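User: Just a sanity check before I run the rest of the batch. Below are the structure tokens for the first item. I only need the designed sequence back.
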């Protein structure tokens, strides 16, 4: 059912990369010097569908770009933002806000896709509200910059909490008259990636062959993996207790990583893979390739109670070609859907109210 973009280091690192795609896509990675942004920028630099990677961040992007630019693939790279010396050293820039705004404008100019992993990562003990208060303002300002410089770009938002930051981004674009619901996406691909990994291990099926839709949102109970719709089917390989166990693990995958890193970070490498997969799917669809389906958190009326909801979507030249909806749910999934809606509604409302109240 789904398109699974495989980013193969062995293949991409070779000089004989395929150039059959209309590979002229310029991608800006907002937060490109961070824990997610750096490996994601690397994966994008190595993909033949990408012609340029613009790395933007508060500090460190020029160094990341210099490093990436030495890799022997055809995509060019530019770095935008302050060096550490320009931020705090002897070469510290006096008006840093003005400088950063100018650098961001340059990074966004002419971009086809903007992917946003920027923001404060989760730390042990951090509440969703703690995360919201910082990242909400950032994403509102990012929307303003995109509206100014590349309003027709596809925007893929990773910055947490996605359930709120994506509505914030969209509402700000609506205020500025630049919003297109077919072009703004919350990236939930990591939930699909985790589902494929955990379920394939439990069911003893090939991880490269399995496809599982994950709907709802991108936090806790709002995440609903539809194991009943897995292809190939795993119904005869998992009992009810195992399905519930796997659902809970998928919902709490982020927490699993945060706890394992013991305060040293959150899910960065797996998120970079998932984010790059989604961006590359967008580019392939923009280039005219058909039949590309990914799950994403988008504005729709699929679930009347929720203005935003992740579902499988078919991608096309102009973004969302078709929302494929929920499909048929079993009794367990129906019960979990109600929980997802309860979890998701206040987060959406909080995001919308943040913009309308500021």
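Assistant: Here's the designed sequence for the first item:
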């Amino acid at each position: 059912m789904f398109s699974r973009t495989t980013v193969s280091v062995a293949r991409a690192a070779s000089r004989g990369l395929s150039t059959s795609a209309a590979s002229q896509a310029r991608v800006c990675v907002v937060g490109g010097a961070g824990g997610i942004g750096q490996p994601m920028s690397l994966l994008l630099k190595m993909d033949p569908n990408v012609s340029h990677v613009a790395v933007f961040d508060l500090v460190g992007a020029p160094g990341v770009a210099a490093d990436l630019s030495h890799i022997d693939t055809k995509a060019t790279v530019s770095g935008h933002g302050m060096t550490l010396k320009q931020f705090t050293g002897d070469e510290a820039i006096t008006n840093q806000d003005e400088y950063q705004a100018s650098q961001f404008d340059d990074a966004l100019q002419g971009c086809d896709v903007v992917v946003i992993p920027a923001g404060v990562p989760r730390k042990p003990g951090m509440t969703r509200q703690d995360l919201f208060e910082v990242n909400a303002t950032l994403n509102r300002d990012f929307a303003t910059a995109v509206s100014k410089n590349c309003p027709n770009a596809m925007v893929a938002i990773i910055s947490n909490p996605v359930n709120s930051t994506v509505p914030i981004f969209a509402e700000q674009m609506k205020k500025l008259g630049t919003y297109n619901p077919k072009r703004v996406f919350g990236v939930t691909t990591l939930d699909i990636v985790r589902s494929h990994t955990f379920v394939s291990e439990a069911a003893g099926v090939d991880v490269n062959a399995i496809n599982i839709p994950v709907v709802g949102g991108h936090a806790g109970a709002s995440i609903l993996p539809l194991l009943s719709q897995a292809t190939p089917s795993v119904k005869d390989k998992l009992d009810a207790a195992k399905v519930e166990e796997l659902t809970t693990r998928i919902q709490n995958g982020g927490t699993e990583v945060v706890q394992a890193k013991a305060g040293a970070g959150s899910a960065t490498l797996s998120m970079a893979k998932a984010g790059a997969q989604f961006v590359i799917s967008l580019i392939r669809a923009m280039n005219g390739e058909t039949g590309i389906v990914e799950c994403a958190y988008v504005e729709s009326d699929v679930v009347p109670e929720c203005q935003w909801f992740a579902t499988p979507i078919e991608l096309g030249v102009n973004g969302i070609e078709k929302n494929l909806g929920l499909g048929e749910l079993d009794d367990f999934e129906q019960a979990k859907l109600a929980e997802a809606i309860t979890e998701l509604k206040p987060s959406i409302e909080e995001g919308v109210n943040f913009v309308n109240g500021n």
